What does this fold into?
Amino acid sequence: MTAAQESVWDYPRPPRVEPRSERVVVRLGGQVIADTTDAVRVLETSHPPVYYLPLDAFPAGVLVPARGTTFCEFKGEAHYFDVVAGGVTVPRGGWTYPKPARGFEALSMRVALYPKHMDSCEVDGEQVTSQEGDFYGGWITKRIIGPFKGGPGTAGW
It folds into this structure.
């Protein structure tokens, strides 16, 4: 591991939220659906970071409220969005915590996206690799090293 790299095994549990100033660009349906330098990321042991972007970074009509919720023991109740752009719809492709638990207030007006369902997600021009599995939404860059939870056989970590 180099000084510029981060091991997900050094991340805390319970998770931590940290503001970031990297440029985050997301594309879907051949369109840029978000372009911001005002992201936060959630860091949790064994998981690649999950980036949360400001709701107002998305053009009108891209985030369509979807049915159903899930519960995170740390962050609270998650609500979902279908993500729509360029004739493409990703059902429940994004989520938010409108009333997050204490310590996670920074997530209340932000949305996270599953990078594997977008055309591309970039952090400072680097294409993100998505975390394995259907449940997690981690963003892997060359700076982030694992092993990562999410792939086959990792549910019990």
